[in-house]
What we know:
Layout: H1 20-36, H2 42-72, H3 85-117, E1 120-123, H4 130-144, E2 151-153, E3 168-174, E4 184-189, E5 197-199, E6 208-212, H5 213-220, E7 229-240, H6 254-265, E8 270-276, H7 281-291, E9 298-301, H8 340-346, E10 349-353, H9 359-370, E11 374-381, H10 389-399, E12 403-408, H11 416-428, E13 432-434, E14 441-442, E15 446-453, E16 456-464, E17 476-483, H12 486-500, E18 512-514, H13 518-534, E19 540-545, H14 551-563, E20 566-571, E21 588-593, E22 598-599, E23 603-606, E24 614-618, H15 624-628, E25 630-636, H16 640-654, E26 661-664, E27 670-672, H17 684-697
Parallel strand pairs: 1-6, 8-9, 11-12, 12-13, 14-25, 17-22, 19-20, 20-21
Antiparallel strand pairs: 2-4, 3-4, 3-7, 5-6, 7-8, 10-17, 11-15, 15-16, 16-17, 18-25, 19-23, 21-26, 23-24, 24-25, 26-27
Helix pairs in contact: 1-2, 1-3, 2-3, 4-5, 9-10, 13-14
Amino acid sequence: MAKRPTHPTPTRAAPVYFNRELSWLAFNRRVLEQAQSDRHPLIERVRFLAITSSNLDEFFQIRVAGLMQQRDAGVAEPGPDGLDPRQQLKQIRTCVDALVEDQYRCWREQLVPALAAEGIHFKTARDLTPRELAWVRSYFREQVYPVLTPLALDQSHPFPQLGNKELNVVVTLDNPATPQIEHLIAILPVPRILPRLVSIMPGGRGPQRTIFLSEIIKLCAGELFPGYRLTAAHAFRVTRNSELYVDEEEAANLLVKIEEELRNLRRGAAVRLEIEDGVAPALFATLCHELALPPDHVFRLKGPINLMRLQSIGDLDRPDLKFPVFTPVNASALRDPATLFDTLRTQDVLLHHPYDSFQPVVDFVEQAARDPQVFAIKQTFYRTSGDSPLVRALIEASQNGKQVTALVELKARFDEANNIQWAKQLEEAGVHVVYGLAGLKTHCKMCLVVRREGRRMRHYAHLGTGNYNPRTARYYTDLSHFTARTDLTGDVAHLFNALTGFGRSPKFRQLLVAPYSLHRRINALIAAEARHAAAGRPARIIAKMNSLVDKATIDALYAASRAGVQIDLIVRGTCCLVPGVPGLSETIRVRSLVGRFLEHTRAYYFENAGGAPVILAGSADWMPRNFFRRVEVVFPIRDAGLRRRITEEIFEIELRDTTNARLLHPNGDYLPVSRRASERTFSSQAHFMAAATRRARTPSSEQ
């Protein structure tokens, strides 16, 4: 296995923050470990490998692109970790080189042989039998040839504009009728409509045989150039800067402006070139020159371009090679939609997805849409699914004469086009569609229902940590909190008014809202724990999130550690805090959970000696963007039973995990949790699935 660069072990005199980008790459390494691990079913391992490729795409499109812009602008100021943009790019290259090498070694040496042993064969052009070769050539002529357009590169044909992450094949050609070797070059852009994995002779008996489309095109490309001899063919693709540049103050119509920018994204500056290994030096130099990319932004791959395309292998009907089917259970107090509002008048309800079904969230909006006593529904959307039942419910509510407001975040990265489509559908149905506050992404997850009951209007609210997306709710871990408490729902109503109307500095009684109060309140809670520890009182912090980056918050945690606070952080992805450093962070433990489900919950526990513990959940990671550049909502859990569920049935279970957990060490390594030889491994996700199955057998009215 390639040597993995590690962070230097910090001392009090050295920087005390991990680099954000290198920490993220360490997270993607943990995802790759799932693909390398034979404890997972085979097809799931292939999926994990595909995820690592997709993750790297986004990393280059956004994070590396931003660093390249800083470098090119002459920015030399180091970040909190002491690295300037140029140094970061250099270390990123070293880490990505090792990661990509291990990705492709995993594919070639582990997954391809294991798949073949199960009757699933991935073929290259060299592996085809005569019968398979005949079928592949026929497939090319009938399905591929008609939609390919060869683009010559010469004085009369400029280098084409290649789309972001689109598959291309570059070929070199010679004219056999001339004595000189001409090395003519042409590029074949491959339309996205063509499937990237092709089943050879589908429907027949025997083993499943699959070939990458790029292999077919390389094999048959000579047919596009009659009279010439094909001398080489290599698949490649270009990754481009994909950050939207929208001046909201100047955009008269934000929706139209973002649509224009989406069309421009495919022409963004190139930030990475991936090409199959073995390309000739002259051709390599030509591509680098035309794309204005230095060689250190080119990756020569020993395998197929874009491993993300392997996701489609999950469509194979091989349940024996997948995780056992798990169906989220609908066993909470909200399992009967007809009594939903009656239930919430008497109790709060907490759901832990995907173990608890997302259906009650859908029922909440659908019931509101059909209930004649409901007068208004207000809903945020950051990301949602195709054919969303929640969008349909809001349209139905509007058609039923209710006042419906949808706050749609058009700038949700990589979901801009989907959200524009939803916004248009909602507007056509008479829904009031709002795009949030200028300069801020609206990332909070909340829905408010206004219902007439007797002579009063009562508010019901759903507050969550994840998106209103029924599809991802099946494999993202998140919390859903339903409440009719007037102080909480009043804050939700107040925030909606601020987002749809005017509100320079709204005040909230219970909610912690970014960018107004969240950063200050979180750091005040950390400081309070430090004071308790310094005074000899019990003090503990447990915080779970996707990313921990904010320097001021990390410094507050360091101060709390020096005061003696016991701190457990469950950070799935990027963590810039360095744990376990004597005199700085020796009471801080950081673990990452990476497993079957994507850990997405954001929840926090502060012991608050002398009072009831403060338990919060919400949409915000501890990052500058969440604290200052997004509208985020963090809400308190007030019900005693639900508070116990979060601390005893979620946090404490996750802190026992020895299967999916990796502990972060001071040198930046994430290592398995140590356990006694006699101790069995423990998976928190397996525990939660088993617990949910038990709840399905004996539904509770107190969840």
